[in-house]
Write a structure and sequence with these properties.
Elements lengths: L1 H16 L5 H29 L20 H20 L2 H4 L3 H14 L13 H22 L4 H32 L4 H5 L1 H24 L13 H13 L3 H27 L1
């Protein structure tokens, strides 16, 4: 859920920075993003089970269908219902951003399903990281800002980059843990395709970029408040070291949660910096 909250928080803070914050529009953005995140998780739960990626050998947190808590057909109906609710919530934003936002809503839902479902699932072909960066970074931050401020600027795209990279890092840790079972199931994530060393470099590189962006804002004339996210540098360093030195699934499950918390903390501090 931090991946849904973070872009809305950052986009709204940037809108507040230029005196254009609209908390009604922001609330609808948050509702839409949260429902898309939930619907995507339901889709992953359903399709990974149907494709055999969630088997008895999986070492991650239990999935509802694979654990027998929810029947596949019930999860499928729940997925459809949540995505339908997201679409309805997104329609409310047309009053602020215009009918073209329907395209973003439909694309978000299609990619949420296509991440693990459909004839060419994104996550099974190494494109999950790219689409998480695009939709939970560029699209979510940009759309949140646009419906409030009515325009898009370079500052918005810059602010979206670390949000997207840190959201993708959640996926990196998840796929890093699941690499052995994903390989058997034919799920060709970037970790499976290029190996653990590549994943560690991707994870660390994303953290470095996230740390550099506040400096870029400072250089562009923002006050020193925009450097607030840099207080998380020691945490980021520990996370990179943990990924490098992890030996058990339990360590990676803990890191998965911590990576989500880092995204939330980064977004909160970045938002505070923009407002201040």
């Amino acid at each position: 859920m931090p991946a849904a909250l973070a872009p809305v928080l950052v986009g709204t803070a940037l809108a507040a920075h230029v005196g254009r914050a609209d908390f009604g529009a922001a609330a609808l953005c948050l509702l839409f993003a949260g429902l898309i995140q939930i619907g995507t998780n339901f889709a992953n739960d359903y399709f990974d089970y149907m494709k055999g990626a969630d088997s008895e050998t999986r070492v991650g947190p239990l999935r509802a269908v694979a654990a027998g808590w929810v029947r596949p057909e019930v999860m499928r109906r729940a997925m459809i219902a949540v995505f339908a609710a997201a679409f309805v919530a997104g329609l409310g934003l047309i009053a602020w951003g215009g009918p073209w936002l329907i395209l973003i809503g439909v694309a978000s839902i299609v990619c949420g399903v296509a991440y693990t479902g459909g004839p060419w699932p994104l996550g099974y072909n190494g494109l999950g990281d790219v689409f998480v960066f695009i939709f939970f970074g560029l699209v979510a931050v940009g759309a949140t800002y646009f419906v409030q401020a009515g325009a898009l600027t370079l500052d918005v795209w810059l602010a979206a980059v670390p949000v997207g990279f840190l959201a993708a890092n959640i996926l990196v840790v998840n796929n890093y843990r699941d690499a052995p079972t994903d390989a058997v199931a034919g799920k060709r994530t970037l970790v499976v395709r290029f190996g653990l060393r590549f994943a560690r470099a991707q994870f660390t590189g994303s953290l470095v970029v996230a740390g550099a962006i506040p400096v870029v804002f400072w250089a562009r004339g923002f006050s020193a408040w925009c450097l607030l996210p840099l207080v998380l540098a020691p945490v980021a360093w520990r996370h990179a070291r943990c990924l490098r030195e992890s030996r058990t699934p339990a360590e990676l499950i803990a890191l998965l949660g911590d990576t989500g918390k880092l995204l939330a903390a980064y977004a909160g501090l970045a938002a505070a910096g923009f407002v201040l």
